[in-house]
Amino acid sequence: MKIRNFAIIALFLLVSCTTSKKDDIDKKVDNLLSQMTLTEKIGQLCCPIGFNLYDDESYKTLIDTLPVGGFWAVFRADPWSQKTLETGPGPNKSRKIYNEMQHYAVENTRLGIPIYFAEECPHGLMAVGASVYPTGLGLAATWDEELLYSLGDAIGLEAYSRGARFGYGPVLDIARDPRWSRVEETFGEDPYLSGTLGSAMIRGMQNYVGATVKHFAAYGIPEGGHNGAAAQTGTNKLMSDYLSSFEIAVKNGAKSIMTSYNAIDGIPCTSNSWLLKDVLREQWGFKGVVFSDLGSIWALHSTHRTAASQLEATAQAINAGVDIDLGGSNYGKYLKEAVEQGLVPIKNVDEAVRRVLRFKYEIGLFDDPYLDVETFPETSQNSSRETFQETSLQTAQKSIVLLKNDGILPLANGKDARPCVSTIAVIGPNADNMYNQLGDYTAPQDPDKIVTVLEGIRNRANANTKIIYAKGCSIRDTNDADFESAIKAAKSADVTILVVGGSSARDFKTSYESTGAAVVNEHISDMDCGEGYDRVSLELSGLQEDLIKEIAKLHKPLIIIYIEGRPLLKNTANEVANALLTAFYPGARGGGAIADIIFGNQNPAGRLPISQPRNTGQIPIYYSQPKPHDYVECESTPLFCFGHGLSYTKFEYSNLIVNKLNNTIEVSVDVKNIGDYHGDEVVQLYLRDEYATITPAEKLLKGFKRIFIQKNETQHITFTISTENLEPGEFTIMVGASSDDIRLKEKIEI
After folding, report:
1. Per-residue pLDDT tens over the stretch 696-707
2. DSSP secondary structure string for all residues of 339-366
């Protein structure tokens, strides 16, 4: 009894301390707000681009004119920002820049309000010298919640160590049209998987910085696959499919959210008060900060044409609930006039400023606005970087999906095994191009820090194995000059590893929109994916399909690997390859991770977070849609379904037990490794509502666990499903290895 009383007292003290701290912050915010002029308030709601400000100290002029709340992309380096590996700031210079800008803001403004830095962090901090992890689809392919937390922690630490206090990411848009250029950034087609893995990453990041979840909302289902195009969906579908991943993130404490460029049923998301106030704040209880996307307020007038002027666009955005204008081009120029003309109530400005100031107090900016450079010395940073690189390798290993294997893999000629083949040909445009495996939103990289597939194969192959390389062709260019050398290499080898796919690698010859999106032009780079590069087809670009067919004509053992940012068509590859793998831009250590899979140093257990169609005409195709009839030309099913992925071992499912408790369903199952290798299995739980007032989904993912099981070992797995949002009626509980590989099922009445 005493122990229980002590526990109650401890809980009371914890709640009291938390409440007291919140009240204290609220008082400080109100006190500061009461001292601010309208110009100072507006400044806090502006977040201008920062990568061109620090070199000539023009940020001082900006702060003298309008004391802004923070800066975006100060450390960004890429062809759009025109910052290279040599000219972009590394870790030490970044910290000095941060302190210089922060000192000026605190010491040279009337109220001394510190600024925040917001940096891109979708799959690593987008800055020179920072770590690069797999892109969103790759992260989702791990189906590993614990790993995503660790990854988020690493990204947050690296961003914080340079001065960032907002990290933009993860991207939780539900992707249902792979023609769309930004599919690679998402966690795939399912809201439960996206919300769960995204929330794990958010919790990790928020050990150091506020995570900014993107893009709110329904951005991943654009008409025609065009980036930023309208989304057409009803309210029920919107709430159940396209908003629920964000709801999970909000319930897990996300500090900020960014609006999207698109409109939903004709209403732009950046001026949608129902979305930003009724749903986000009232229904979900979101207390954080809402950012516009860069230029999305401007687009209310210029693109959507729902505002007759930029003044009206500014009023629409802030009245709808957008707190911070990313870029500052609207609030900085028009918000004061909008207030003075009565278009914007001052209380709307005050509420937005309160949220910005509250974040700054919560993150500790007022208590300690500067970075102690000695806390992050270069030696310590190098030590941390080794840990980050190991995390990058582990994440890549877990993200690779084995789609097909006739027994050729693993190749038994790694360094620790006796060679079974004397010569391996490594061929293809993605075999030895480091930027083609890194994805969009990636800073320029030191080649010594990146491991390509060719390098990975060479590093991990037995010393007696001969490795021959030929590029064969590029991603998009139709020059076949290297075809002959590729075929010659394949002829002389015992096994060919052919690495094809896509690329989101930006270059300095590409043009860019004001938002940073790439513009498709006459210059033929490898880039066929990434923001701005929408596709009309999911076929391999250039001559890659021809290269596959020519190599297949040799009738020799063939392993095909796709390094891609969207699910490209794989019909030919599936027909001719002995083994087929996909890696969704696997990051800096991706080549080594692929080699580990090839040689059996790692047992593959990645699972598809997005369906792989047979034909572009099947779009949209996703596992939860009601099962359609077949087409005249092909089946209606995907080539590879959501959740699919093979292993070098086999797992047996048994002893399904389903128990109804008060407000939950408890589901347990035994999984035994009956194969010859130790390995991970991703156990997936699906629920089917047999009948409902609204047309129910074919099945819905409700739980998953990635577990390591030694050969001949059995693991007992337990899931819990909340019945809070389920209608009374009959349901089918399904447990299996993918959405179309259900091993056990049982009906239950609720």
Report:
1. 999 999 999 999
2. HHTTSS-HHHHHHHHHHHHHHHHHHTTT
- The pLDDT assigned to 604 comes to 98
> CA–CA separation, 90 vs 382, rounded Å?
12
What is d(CA 290, CA 270) in angstroms, rounded to the nearest whole number? 10
348: burial class by Cβ within 10 Å (0-12, 13-18, 19+)? middle
Rounded to an integer, what distance in angstroms lies between the CA atom of residue 146 and that of residue 252?
15
Alpha-carbon Rg for the chain in angstroms: 26
Q: What are phi and psi of 240, to 5 degrees?
A: -80, -35
- DSSP E strands in 527-678: the ranges are 558-563, 579-583, 651-660, 664-673
**In the block, residue with structure tokens 């930004």:** 182
pLDDT in tens, 626-681: 888 999 999 999 999 999 999 999 999 999 999 998 899 999 999 999 999 999 99
Question: What confidence category does residue 399 fall into, taking pLDDT thresholds of 50, 70 and 90?
Answer: very high
CA 524 to chain CA centroid, Å, is: 27
β-pairing, 558-563 vs 518-519, is unpaired
Place of tokens 């995503």: 148
Sign of CA dihedral 497, 541, 509, 522: positive
* Peptide bond before residue 620 is cis, with ω within 30 degrees of 0: yes
Give the burial class of 121: count Cβ atoms within 10 A of its Cβ; 0-12 exposed, 13-18 middle, 19 or more buried.
Answer: buried
> Taking Cα atoms as reference points, which of 131, 130, 128, 49 lies closest to residue 89?
128
For residues 424 and 402, what is the distance between their CA atoms, to the nearest angstrom?
Answer: 20
**Residues 480, 485, 486, 487, CA torsion sign:** positive
In terms of residues, how long is the chain? 750
Using the structure block, give the residue that is written with the tokens 């609006």: 259
Q: How many CA atoms lie within 13 A of 417 on its CB side?
A: 16
289-305 mean pLDDT: 97
Residue type for 574, please?
Answer: N
What CA–CA distance (Å, rounded) separates 325 from 68? 11
Dihedral, 607, 611, 613, 618 alpha carbons, nearest 10: 170
Q: How far apart are CA 88 and CA 275, in angstroms?
A: 38
Amino acid at 379: T
Compute the distance between CA of residue 574 and CA of residue 552 in angstroms, rounded to an integer. 11
Decide if pLDDT at 43 tops 60: yes
Cα 4 to Cα 8, 9, 10, 428, distances in angstroms: 6, 9, 10, 65
In the chain, the amino acid numbered 217 is: A
CA-closest candidate to residue 598, choices 496, 469, 503: 496
- Residue 360 CA, chain-centre distance (Å), reads 25
Q: Quick one: pLDDT at residue 379? A: 44
Are 30 and 10 spatial neighbours (Cβ–Cβ below 8 Å)?
no
Q: Count CA atoms closer than 13 A to 498's CA, side-chain side.
A: 34
Overall pTM surpassing 0.70 (yes/no):
yes
SS3 content of the chain, % helix, strand, coil (to 5): 35, 20, 45
Q: Three-state SS for 423?
A: strand
Tell me the per-residue pLDDT of 75-118, one tens digit each, with 9 for 90 and over: 999 999 999 999 999 999 999 999 999 999 999 999 999 999 99
Q: What is the pLDDT of residues 719-736, one digit of tens each?
A: 999 998 899 999 999 999
Mind giving me the DSSP string for 14-35?
HHHHHHHHHHHHHHHHHHHHHT
How high is the pLDDT of residue 375? 73
CA distances from 8 to 12, 13, 15, 16, 205 (A): 6, 9, 11, 12, 31
